[in-house]
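BUG: 3D viewer hangs when loading the predicted structure for this chain

Environment: internal workstation, default settings.
Expected: structure renders.
Actual: progress bar stalls at 90%.

Input used:
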Amino acid sequence: MARPADNLIGAIQAECNRVRETVLPEYEKIPTGVFAATMMRTSIRRGESAIACGDPAECLAALLDLRGWKL
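Structure tokens produced before the viewer hung:
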């Protein structure tokens, strides 16, 4: 049986990949999208850092942050 932390980590990894592969490239195409693209990279780093530290509160905050990025 998967532990809740494993599911949270998997969700963060999936969101990092979604933002990195789908959302970020679209914003990089827009001349005025530099600020948003920079913020997305910060969100991705936050997600990766949250996974590394393993703090559930930070993981949840990072996941919610990543889920906020849309096309």
